[in-house]
């Protein structure tokens, strides 16, 4: 369908499902075990309802913000997801260019299918790129990768901590890599032993997530990373209140509450619920560092609920992969336009004129679930 007929992220995903290969859709859409956590990530949003206020001036609404001090036209960012080339020959560069057009920030995956340099070259000179780090178990190899992205101008390190071993994604494991050019697992940047054979036996994650540091600790890893780089550090993959508090104590610049889109620990708590609990139990954490969530965000109202509960911004993984697979660069820009329109509408109807004025009392958690 022509792009103007795409009204929602669900429409975009439907197009992607028609154009993607069996392998690509299996890898992109799959999650751990019975995919309960993936589904609940999204469903959690339907337990939160707005306390809409009327008679508030909303003729001018400001949805722009900053993430780690870098400007963004809307409080969303690209959560780093691997292998964009599986869905479109231009791969991650589609997302980079779409993000430039939309003035949003892209977090580039350690397992991107283009090199970090190719992605940096696709960016406009003023564009902000963040880097998602899978820390190699060998510190020296990890440092080499950090130096490379520093040199290329990436602006922050997002250390993923929820994927030290690959999750059990059965739909991905069942769907084999076939050895046509488009269907080959691309060159890996993990300096591991990833291979097509390995991917076919252990699933794509089993080939990508190799030689990751499984012995990371708050005491060792955060001071080490601080000593290695001056870039801001965000921990990606916080899944409970306790760890959010420890991250604040460790003095990181931010946390991304995330369960990897349900792809890692099945029955990990939905990020929105963790955010809600954190805001109630430890409001002080939000003054010490920026808090973000990702997982299941598909609508402007989803973004708005997370912001009301204290998130500075929200990430999205699959929607960007689907948008770039379906329409390339312009699909990404269209996706962000849809979310901007949805967020503006929702804010007007909620009675909020700026993202800085959103507060937890604007949403309520209900104990019933709409059908
Ligand atoms: C991911 N994700 C991910 N995370 C990460 O830190 N490094 C990575 O390489 C990847 N790769 C990856 C591939 C694919 C296909 C998906 C779907 C996800 C997780 C990603 O950053 C993000 O946390 C989730 O995608 C968020 O959930 P939604 O938005 O997809 O529901």
Count all strands and give the number: 12
Task: Compute the CA-based radius of gyration.
Answer: 19 Å
Distinct small molecules bound, one entry per kind:
ligand FNR
Q: SS-based structural class?
A: alpha/beta
Order of secondary-structure elements: HHHEEEEHEHEHEHHHEHEHHEHEHHE
Number of helices: 15
Low-pLDDT stretches are 188-192
Shape: globular
Strand order of the largest sheet: 4-5-6-7-8-9-10-11
Mean pLDDT, nearest integer?
93
The percentage of residues in β strands lies in 5-15%
Helix proportion: 40-55%
Largest sheet: 8 strands, parallel, barrel
- Rounded to the nearest angstrom, the distance between the terminal CA atoms is 30 Å
Report on this structure.
Residues 1-368 form the FMN hydroxy acid dehydrogenase domain. It is an enzyme of class 1 (oxidoreductase). One of its GO terms (molecular function) is L-lactate dehydrogenase (cytochrome) activity. It catalyses: (S)-lactate + 2 Fe(III)-[cytochrome c] = 2 Fe(II)-[cytochrome c] + pyruvate + 2 H(+). By secondary structure, the chain is an alpha/beta fold. It is 41% helix and 13% strand. It has 15 helices and twelve strands. It has helices at 9-19, 22-29, 36-43, 92-102, 116-122, 139-151, 170-174, 196-208, 218-228, 241-250, 271-281, 285-288, 300-308, 318-327, 329-350, and strands at 48-50, 65-67, 70-72, 76-78, 105-108, 129-133, 157-160, 233-238, 254-257, 290-294, 313-316, 363-365. The strands form three sheets. An eight-stranded parallel barrel has the order 4-5-6-7-8-9-10-11, surrounded by six helices. It has a two-stranded antiparallel sheet with strand order 1-12. A two-stranded antiparallel ribbon has the order 2-3. Helix 4 packs parallel to helix 5 and helix 13 (300-308) packs across helix 15 (329-350). It is globular, with a radius of gyration of 19 Å. It starts with 8 loop residues before the first helix and ends in a 6-residue tail after the last strand. The structure holds ligand FNR. The site of ligand FNR has 25 residues, from helix 2 and helix 14. Ligand FNR binds at residues 27-28, 41, 79-82, 109-111, 132, 160, 236, 258, 260-261, 263, 294-297, 316-318, 321.
């Amino acid at each position: 369908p022509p792009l103007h007929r795409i009204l929602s992220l669900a429409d975009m995903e439907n197009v992607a499902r028609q154009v993607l290969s069996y392998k690509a859709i299996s890898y992109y859409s799959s999650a751990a075990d019975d995919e309960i956590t993936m589904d609940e990530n999204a469903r959690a949003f339907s337990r939160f309802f707005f306390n809409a206020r009327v008679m508030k001036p909303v003729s001018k609404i400001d949805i722009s913000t900053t993430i780690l001090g870098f400007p963004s036209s809307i409080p969303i960012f690209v959560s780093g997801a691997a292998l964009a080339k599986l869905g479109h020959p231009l791969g991650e560069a589609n997302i980079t260019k779409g993000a430039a057009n939309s003035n949003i920030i892209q977090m580039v995956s350690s397992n991107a299918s283009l090199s970090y340099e190719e992605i940096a070259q696709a960016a406009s000179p003023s564009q902000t790129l963040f880097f998602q780090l899978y820390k190699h178990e060998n510190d020296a190899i990890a440092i080499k990768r950090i130096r490379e992205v520093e040199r290329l101008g990436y602006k922050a390190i997002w250390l993923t901590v929820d994927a030290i071993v690959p999750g059990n994604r059965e739909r991905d494991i069942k769907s084999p890599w076939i050895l046509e050019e488009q269907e080959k697992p691309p060159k890996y940047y993990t300096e591991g032993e990833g291979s097509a054979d390995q991917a076919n036996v252990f699933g794509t994650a089993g080939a990508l997530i190799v030689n990751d540091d499984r012995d990371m600790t708050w005491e060792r890893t955060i001071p080490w990373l601080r000593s290695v780089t001056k870039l801001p550090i965000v921990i990606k993959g916080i899944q409970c209140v306790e760890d959010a508090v420890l991250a604040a104590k460790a003095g990181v610049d931010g946390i991304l509450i995330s369960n990897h889109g349900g792809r890692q620990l099945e029955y990990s708590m939905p990020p929105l619920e963790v955010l809600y609990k954190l805001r109630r139990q430890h409001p002080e954490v939000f003054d010490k560092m920026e808090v973000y969530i990702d997982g299941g965000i598909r609508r402007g109202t989803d973004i708005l609920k997370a912001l009301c509960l204290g998130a500075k911004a929200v990430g999205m993984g699959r929607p960007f992969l689907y948008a770039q697979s379906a329409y390339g660069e312009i699909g990404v820009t269209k996706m962000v336009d849809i979310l901007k329109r949805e967020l503006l509408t929702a804010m007007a109807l909620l009675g909020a004129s700026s993202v800085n004025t959103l507060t937890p009392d604007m949403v309520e958690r209900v104990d019933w679930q709409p059908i």
